[in-house]
Every structure is written in C-alpha cells, then in structure tokens.
C-alpha cells in the first residue's frame, strides 16, 4: 500500500510539473489497479490527460479497473473514436462492463466504431440477461476433440489467442458439446502420444448461460475452481468464467447486501454525485417515514395512558431500540446465510429455534437489567416488570420476523437484504410499543 501511495504522489507531482514524457514512462510500469486509483482522485481534465498518456493496451486494463461513476465521467469526456480504439484491445466481457454503463446512444455509437469482429462478440454477450453467466463469461477458451494427442493439444494451446487465460483444456465432441476437462498440469505431465480422451476428467462442473452470477460465484468458491465453463441447454461449450470475475461478483453482491441492509441502493458508491443518489435515498426514507407513522399510530392508541402516566414515554425508546438491534442482528446473519447458500429449507427449523432461544435468553438478561434500572430510577416495581416482559416479548418477535421475512422475500424473488432496515424494524416497533403500552394500560390503576 505504501508503494501505491508513493506512485500516487509521483503521478500527481509529474502532472503538476507538466512532465508528460516522464509520466508516460512511469505509467507504463505501473499496475492498472494503481493507475485507476489515481485517476479516481483527479479532476476530470487531469483524468483525460493522464489516460491519454497510456498505451492503448494499458488504457484498456485501467478502464476495466475503474468504478462506474469515474468510468462514465472519463468516457464521457473522450471522443467516441478514441474510446472505441481502446475497447478494441480489451477482452469482450470487459467491453461489456464498460458499454453497459454508458448512455444507450453513446454505447451504440462506440460499438459501431469498433472493429467488426470485436463489436459482434460484445453484442452477442449483451444479448444475455444482465447478472447471468452468459453476460459474465469470456467467449475465449481452449478446447480440443478427445482423439487429439497431448502433443497436438499443447501445440493448439501455444497457437491459441486466448492461451494466456487458459487454466484448463476443455474436451468437446464433434458437435462442441462439453465432455471433459484436462488441467494443464496433467496435460504437461502426460506422454506426448497419449490421446486427450485417456487423461480427461469426465465429470466437469459447469454452469448454464442463464445461471445467476451469484450462483456462479458460489460454485467457483465451493469447488475451488480457477475457471468454470459455461454451456447452453444442450451442453454446448460457449465460454468460461474465471475466478477473478467470481471474486468481483462476490464483492459486488456483498456490497449490495450491506448497502441494502442499511436502506441504501445496492449500486451506490461514495463517488456518485448527489443528484444521482437523491431519488434512491429519498425513496427509502419515504418508505421509512410511512412505517414510522404506522408505529406512531400505535402509540396514539394509548395516548390517554401516556397522559395519565408520563413515565411511560421515558421507557418507550428503550423497547423500540432493543427490538431494532435484535432484528438487525438476526436479519444480518440470515441474509448472509442466504447469500452463501447455507440458509436452506432443511435448516430453517434449526435456525428459527436458535434465534428464538437467543431472543428469550438475551431478552430475559436485558429485561432484568432494565428492570433494575427502571426500579432504581422511578421506584415502581410493577412498571419495571412490565418493561422487562415487553422487552422479552419484543426479542421473540425480532427473532421470528428477522428469520422468516428475509426467507419469504427470497421465495418471492425479492432481494432479502432490503428486509432489515425498513420492513422488519417496523414489526418490532409496532409490537414493542403495543406490548409495553398495552400491558401498562391494563394495569395502569396499579401504577398511578
């Protein structure tokens, strides 16, 4: 990291001094990820100036590392012809990542200006649904027939344009159906005259083009794969997805879950302009406002009790706050379990029992503490007991809704990460206020 910081300072210094020739030499030896980090921190004019000092090949690698807001800003500042020349030197799947972030008219114009063969490859990938294996895959791979010898296969890899990205040699039949795989280390260790069919592995873990990218990443992680093949419904080999792309998906999905758990749009970044974020943020805040009104209406049902015993208002935030943290804890664990594929129907009863046990025990422990505090503060034993009982009840509600609502949302194909901050906390607010104020109302004659 210290080296990246030094590179950052050197680039900014050379930019300020106008030493473009020295800067170009420095950029040539820099890693694309480090250059992209510097570009993100520069004003638009300097972004363009720095980008133009890169070689076309290096420029494409840097472009692939940029976050979406910076990418849109940079590409929008460059002529379409210049952008198309850079994209011509990028792998098709990376070009897809770039053009799908651009306005439709600009993307179409850039694709028109690109080399015909590369443009067609990109447009074929764009036809697949976003977020699926088809959109994520690289159409470049190395495959041979099973009767091919080891020597012929090695020569084929040597000549293949995609050899740099080949981790496995795929085996296909006469109709390009995937029938096996040979890891490169096994290929190199085999006798040159051995047919590929004799050393192949028949069982090949693969995904279909319509498989969700999150499931693709899960398979790559679960089976410790460096690369996974993508096939169509007839098992015809169409492309491959590397572990680097799977890691990107895992990072994106985890970021999206975290943001949605906080009531933020899953695609928001710290660099997004305020106008682009306003509608997304405000939507969730308006929804939250509606749920807050619902909770307030429950309080309104017991307005006379609160007027008769103002002390009730003092302890209401405690019940709501404890319910909120309980649901956040439960929902976070459940949503993450869903994302990892651990939260299945087979373990639902076990997870629910665990959360109920935790709700009861932590509720009792916290209820005892707050009962003692309430008694020392207000000197009323009954009020202290009511508060403790309401807290235990709210912890149990939090356990149930924090477990079941994310699963229900997933069943209806709604992202369960949106459940915690808005939907679930509404339940605990409503039930918490209702239990505390309801019990106090029933026993108010003993409290006055």
Task: Please provide a written account of the structure.
This protein has 448 residues and is mainly alpha-helical. The chain has three domains: 2-130, MgtE N-terminal fold; 143-251, Roll (CBS-domain), CATH 3.10.580; 274-447, SLC41 divalent cation transporters, integral membrane domain (Tetracycline Repressor, domain 2), CATH 1.10.357.20. It has 23 helices and six strands. The protein has helices spanning 2-17, 20-29, 32-40, 44-52, 56-65, 68-76, 80-87, 92-99, 104-113, 116-126, 133-136, 150-159, 184-189, 196-199, 213-222, 243-261, 274-301, 303-308, 311-340, 348-378, 381-411, 419-442, 444-447, and strands spanning 143-145, 168-172, 178-183, 207-208, 227-231, 237-242. Strands 1-2-3 form a three-stranded mixed β-sheet. Strands 4-5-6 form a three-stranded mixed β-sheet. Helix 12 links the parallel strand 1 and strand 2 (168-172). Helix 7 (80-87) packs across helix 9 (104-113) and helix 17 (274-301) runs parallel beside helix 22. The longest helix is centred in the C-terminal third of the chain and has 31 residues, at 348-378. The chain is globular. The mean pLDDT is 87.
Q: Which key phrases capture this entry?
A:
mainly alpha, 448 residues, 69% helix, CBS-domain, 3-stranded mixed sheet, MgtE N-terminal fold, globular, 23 helices, Tetracycline Repressor, domain 2
Total number of distinct structural domains: 3
Q: On the 0-100 scale, what is the average pLDDT?
A: 87
The N- and C-terminal alpha carbons lie at a distance of 65 Å
Assigned CATH superfamily of the largest domain: SLC41 divalent cation transporters, integral membrane domain
Uncertain spans? none
Number of helices, where a helix is a run of at least 4 consecutive DSSP H or I residues? 23
């Amino acid at each position: 990291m210290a080296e990246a910081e030094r590179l950052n300072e050197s680039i900014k210094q050379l930019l300020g001094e106008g030493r473009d020739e020295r800067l170009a030499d420095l950029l040539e030896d820099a890693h694309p990820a480090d250059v992209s980090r510097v570009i993100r921190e520069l004003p638009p004019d300097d972004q363009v100036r720095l980008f133009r000092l890169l070689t076309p090949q290096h420029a494409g690698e840097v472009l692939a590392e940029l976050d979406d807001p910076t990418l849109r800003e940079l590409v929008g500042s460059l002529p379409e012809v210049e952008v198309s020349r850079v994209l011509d030197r990028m792998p098709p799947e990376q070009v897809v990542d770039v053009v799908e972030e651009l306005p439709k008219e600009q993307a179409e114009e850039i694709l028109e200006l690109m080399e015909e063969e590369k443009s067609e490859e990109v447009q074929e990938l764009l036809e697949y649904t976003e977020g699926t294996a088809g959109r994520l895959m690289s159409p470049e791979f190395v495959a041979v027939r099973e009767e091919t010898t080891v020597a012929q296969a090695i020569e084929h890899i040597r000549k293949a344009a995609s050899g740099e990205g080949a981790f496995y040699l795929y085996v296909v039949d006469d109709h390009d159906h995937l029938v096996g795989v040979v890891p490169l280390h096994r290929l190199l260790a085999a006798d040159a005259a051995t047919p590929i069919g004799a050393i192949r592995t028949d069982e090949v873990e693969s995904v279909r083009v319509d498989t969700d990218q999150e499931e693709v990443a899960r398979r790559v992680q679960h089976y410790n794969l460096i690369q996974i093949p993508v096939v169509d419904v007839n098992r015809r080999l169409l492309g491959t997805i590397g572990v680097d792309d799977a890691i990107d998906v895992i990072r994106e999905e985890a970021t999206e879950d975290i943001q949605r758990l906080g009531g933020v749009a899953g695609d928001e970044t710290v660099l997004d302009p305020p106008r682009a974020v306003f509608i997304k943020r405000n939507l969730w805040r308006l929804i939250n406002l509606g749920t807050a009104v619902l909770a307030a209406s429950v309080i309104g049902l017991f307005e006379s009790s609160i007027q008769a015993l103002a002390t009730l208002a003092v302890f209401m935030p405690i019940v709501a706050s404890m319910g909120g943290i309980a649901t956040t804890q439960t929902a976070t664990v459940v949503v993450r379990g869903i994302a990892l594929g651990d939260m299945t129907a087979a373990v639902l009863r076990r997870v629910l029992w665990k959360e109920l046990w935790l709700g009861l025990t932590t509720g009792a422990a916290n209820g005892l503490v707050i009962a003692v505090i309430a008694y020392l503060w207000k000197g009323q034993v009954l009020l202290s007991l009511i508060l403790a009982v309401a807290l235990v009840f709210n912890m149990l509600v939090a356990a149930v809704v924090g477990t079941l609502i994310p699963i229900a949302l997933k069943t209806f194909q709604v992202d369960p990460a949106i459940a915690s901050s808005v939907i679930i906390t509404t339940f605990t607010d409503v039930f918490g206020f209702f239990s505390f104020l309801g019990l106090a109302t029933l026993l108010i004659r003993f409290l006055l």
